[in-house]
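Record type: monomer structure entry
Structure origin: computed from sequence
Chain ID: A
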Amino acid sequence: MSGDFEKNLGQKIRVARQRAGLTQEDLAARISRTPESISNIERGQQEPGIKTVQSLANVLGLPLSELFESMLLPRSPELRLALRGLDFSGRRNRYSNQWLDDSRHADGT
C-alpha cells in the first residue's frame, strides 16, 4: 500500500513528531496505537483511518489541512496560500489573516 499519498502523509507525521520531541512509543501511547503502527504509518506502509489522522493531528498540534495540503492543493502559489486559510476544524489557522490580506479578486479589485 506504499503509494505517494501514504509516503507523503507518513513523512509529514514523522517530521511533526520529531519537532514535538516525541518518540514513536510516546506518540503511539497518546493515541492508543502500537509503536509498530506509528512506524508503518510514517514509512507509508499503512494508511491510517481518518480518526487516527485526527488523533495524530491533535497530539502533534497540527490542523488536518496541514497534513494533507501538499497532496491535495494545486501547485499555484496564490491558490495554495488562499486554501491554507481554510482549516477543516472550523477554526482560523495561522494563514487566515495573510490569506485575507493577499487575496486577489478575478476582476482585479
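Annotation 1: Confidence is low (pLDDT under 50) at residues 87-109.
Annotation 2: Residues 4-69 form a domain with the 434 Repressor (Amino-terminal Domain) fold (CATH 1.10.260.40).
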